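Lecture 7, part B: from sequences to assemblies.

Below are the input chains for today's worked example.
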Amino acid sequence: MKREVFISYSNIITGLGNLDETWQAILERKSSILKKKHFENSLLESTGLSLYKRNFVEEKENFAHFLIINCLNNFLEIPKNTYVIWTGIKNSAEFIEKSLYKTRLPQYSSERDLLNWVIDYLGLKEGMEISAACASSTVGISLASQLIAEGKFDNILVIGCDFVTKFVYYGFAALKAMTEEICKPFDKKRKGLSLGDGAFALLLSSEKRSKIRVSGWSITNDANHITGPSRTGDGLADSIKKVLKMSGLKEKEIQAICAHGTGTLYNDAMEIKAFNSIFSENVPITFGIKGSIGHSLGAAGGIEIALSAKCLLEDTILPTVGCDDPEANYISLVPINKKLKNIISCNSGFGGINASVLLEKC
Amino acid sequence: MKNIKKLFLLGSGWISTQGYGFSNSCPLFSDQNNEFELKFPPLEEMLEELPTRYGRFDIFTKIVFSTACLSLKDANFLSKDKKRNVGIVVGTSYGTTENDILFFKTTIEKNGLFTSPNLFSYTLPNISIGELAVYFSFTGPTFCVGNQSDNPGIEALMASFSILNENLCDIVLVGCVESNKNLSFYGGMFSLISTEKNKNIKKEFSVNETKNFLDLFGV
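Predicted structure of the full complex, as structure tokens:
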């Protein structure tokens, strides 16, 4: 017998603040992305980055710890039998950078070290980490939902962070994936992504302690290219179809989509193709939040799922900040008040991965 | 949800400094890896053609790809003609650390002027899985897992059983790989497991009693 899965509690940290602060700021169409020459570099004249309280952190301090401690501040009491799934992907870059530049070293922070640190910090016992590029937290939430549904665990904390480092900055710059402006998801004039600091924590449970149920999840691969999205959108479309099948909902019943929307030419075009192919003339209202907070890699999906759950609770669809001239007529430009019963949140990443989660209000 | 209790092993493969082999052999690993190189199988003899990016693979991707090919050969599953709903799960503790350091060194000179986009592409362990998915047209769930200690194969198997249970795919290629010479487990082990019997099955095994990769090898 498959058990139901609920999001008991969630919080996020972004350049705009915690969950409530980020929600309010996006409603007001604000962005924490600051355009300037952030690093001395030969690749970009300027770029937009969304940073979280960098001045409050000493160089020797581990920034991942700082983000997670802030994210867990005032968090619901976590049951002692909670399993942990960590989904940050490139936190080790901080140590690699500081080692090579011979500055003061923080505690080494591979993803495994951070998993162990979170388990100790919360007084829990066991967990695992997942690495699936920018879809990591959506994959983590999918797997957590599956493990709870089949009765392996009653509570799973899916948690992670990623933040701007020179390592990641230079890498995306070399791939020519970043804009020198502030990113413009789904805009016809979009030129690339902006990076951002981000953390999230979602407690998933079999016990109903909230109105948000995870009613569908899926993970697929494009089998097309290791860094470029599929030009056809087939992999993402396949993922959304599987989510619909699992939830028992029809295409026409879906009310909103929180898209990955990085602001790169190819990602956003791929998503629009996938949505059009599934929903044809009736694509649900779709939004992306990376124009407000940047792209926080492995944490992006978790942040977006937490905000999607809040959309359901507040009966409001968020605007796509940064988008002025949308590529498709279903991209939301302003907040939309609407009685919401469900929302799909989806992400795609390097390695050809796609993951989707369907949330329902119950 | 299927509520699976039994699964079928279609094939396995392993690579270490001591050699390489299939499901009918016992994987051999050593504590003296610094003195030896990994023994890779002759992929050019096993495959119709090498992947287009094979020459650019980092060491982690090379181990993942080569070991996976051994298990697919063992399962008579090397065809790459059509898309198949096969998932891939890889357990690793240290992932792409060696390549991460190589990449970061390219960013230091002249404020990043010589930053290598190719090395950056391989700074995530799931890129190696992407290479497998692209080459063999596998469209199922694909991700890497790690755990609190040096035995992420346990979580890789748990995640694999779970995605099969939910029908997210029909077959899973599951592996465990480390590319750090200082570890006693330096190399890789992969198995192809299915929810349904076919003529190539090597053995039937219990989900509840299988926690370790070595349980999937024949001795």
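Note for the exam: Residues 311 and 317 of chain A are 6 Å apart (CA to CA). Keep this in mind when comparing with the next example.
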